[in-house]
Amino acid sequence: MPQLRVLLVCDWFLKDTAHLAPELKKLGAEVALLCTRRAEEFADFDERARALDPVRAADIPVIELDPSMRKLAPQLQALMSSRRVARWRPDVVFAHDNRDPRLLLMTRAWPTVINVHDPVPHPGEKAPTWYRRPVSAAWTRRATVVTVHGEALKEELLRRMPAMRVATVPLGIVPHAEPNPLPLSPAVLFFGRLHEYKGIDILLAAMPLVWKARPDVRLIIAGGGPLESLIPTDPRVTARLGYIPEADIDGVFSQATLLVLPYRQASQSGPGGRALERGIPVIATSVGALPELVRDPEALVPPNDPNALARAIIGKLDHDDRTRQNLLDDAERRMSWRASAARLLDIFAAESNRQT
What is the pLDDT of residues 158-169, one digit of tens each? Predict the structure, then answer.
């Protein structure tokens, strides 16, 4: 049986794609990556280059487009890239939802599976410009299968598009060889963008209740966004505002006893995966696909409920290394990039066979 040729396509979500590509190749696929050379999801272009290290180490071809669409030279380069894609002749295209019309046009000849991260837009998120929205819609119309990162998200998408074939695939994590040791002093971590839908105000309302029972607990807030002004000046609160470079993430999570996801609305959570790949317990609200991160029902709380959130935090602060190892083992089985790649490869093979 010939190798399945899979072209991975992304504008954003390069971090995810760079982890997925080598795992697909290990499972027997021939893989190439087509992406836009933008650095907005990174600290700078150096960090972006490092993110591609696993792809280059696996000897996977990378075809990059200049993000500019208003200059002649980048469009000539895009034309050459399009010919290179055509010569490579993928069996299946797997694209992350994006709004770059060049990526859409360059891959129109092949069966397409698209990953939709957010079937329902997050409240308060900036809407795409009018001329970008039709591109995203065209990707979805063209796809024969849409993948999402949780069963709740599948239900959300099917309510909007009942005729669509939708499959659930884990977001993917990189499990560490062993769990993080417990920090010397207990600390609750909030990691990510400080937007209203993520419920940072609910966590801040819960913390006085936590401190009443456990005055030794610290709160660590790592991230940036429009709600930075809510963070109180308090010796028990440590704030690291702004984008956290990949090189610093281990240091932030090494201080965490628990990660808290107090979201009002969610799809899935990258920070939740970051915690589980280190064996750190997660407290989350019962929105979107967050319940699939939290196997312990006592660590799952209703949204907008500071009292319930405080009780869950207090109840889960004291745990041992065995708890962390069990969390890591479970996350590796269910959520590793290898598990995601295996699930996707089955989908790709089925789509390729349907076209022959």
Answer: 998 898 999 999
